[in-house]
Amino acid sequence: MASDSVSGAGKTAGQVVTRFAPSPTGYLHIGGARTALFNWLYARHHGGRVLLRIEDTDRKRSTQDAIDKIIEGLDWLGLDFDDAPMFQSDRAERHAEVAHQLLAAGHAYKCFATPEELEAMREQQRAAKLPLRYDRRWRDRDPSEAPAGAPYVIRLKVPTGGATTIDDAVQGRITVQNNEIDDYILLRSDGTPTYMLAVVVDDHDMGVTHIIRGDDHINNAFRQLPIIRAMNAIEGNWPDPVYAHVPLIHGPDGAKMSKRHGAVGVEAYRDQEGVLPEALFNYLLRLGWGHGDREEITKEEAVELFDLDGVGKGPARFDIKKLQNLNGHYIREADDRRLALIVAEKIGPKADADLLTKAMPVLKLRAKSTNELAEGAAFLFAKRPLAMTEKAAELLDDNARELLSGLSKMLHLQNDWTIEGLEATTKSYAETLGLGLGKLAQPMRAALTGTTTSPGIFDVLVLLGRDEALARIDAQARSAEAAKEV
User: Can you give the pLDDT at residue 262?
Assistant: First the structure.
């Protein structure tokens, strides 16, 4: 595949181009999502382009399901790309072409070392407590010395003297001695390219100007630059990219974020934690990047404010409580109908989206997740006889049922089934009994919802509607009447 067939070619001179390049061997994890976000924001802030590359060269571990989940997660977060995804596996021919260019120009060489020879070399290095590196045994040898038809790999001739320095946009100036990098493989003996070669060729052909990725890739930068500079010597149009290596995300204990810290995939935060995309977007933005004391930042504000100079050099710590609190803010800000549809999907076929929309203003007041919204709305669709929590059942003792029996008679006469009308009637009944409203509200809540927590009791009465509310109260009041007859 020729380089001019890649979408990044033909970009405007001087235009910023970033890329997100996940491997489809699993879900879109939190660290990857933040990398995608930073690439997206940097490109959008600078009026550039952001591209998506699926690095699926590991055919055994790459799956279509993982590809679908990654793209779905990015879309859910609101991250759009300026071209269709590029699949690295489609470009093996182009990768091999570059390897052979390097070979022909003397920047690479054929290595005929057998697996047994390489293992013996490593054993010697282990015994001498030396770094395990290829010893360049075929770097200056004539390929004719190898047996006829012997398999070989193509290795890069990495400079052996001096040092390479990168002015990283996040980490600052980093220098590595060239002799610390071995002559690594570009093309395997079966003709397939290695990750190190494929990444460099794809970044060039896509026109990538800024490589923003996790700081676990810093060493890769020093291995990839020699390819770029060798190809620049050959063709003259392979500029160094700007590197920005972002610190990794750590868990609350300071260790690298992993499954043991809880959910790590974007879809898990959506489904299991009940997080809204704008909340996760905002939280990931603030995870390692800051703008003064601002915590709540909209997508539009983020595009306006984001730049690499705001990214910290130290690892950020993931705090689920902060995410939950931020999510609560976005739930309160969210459109009621949108929330109702999310909750309806969680509840299932029995859910009524119109009723949920009506209930949402009171349901979302204290909720920190869409799961809490679904739990809080469950009473609306419960069937009689209501299942009772243990605490709710304890509230409905004989005295409470007696109170509900009297209240039921008054509510059956109620013509004004509004919050104001129901509150006036209930307060009047409580006053005649010499009770505070709370003494009456708690058994009412238990009878109406089967729980001890709910929206305001008069909201509950209105949302359930006259017939269902009275039926639920009467179901408990009848128990009191039956006890009298006995």
Answer: 64
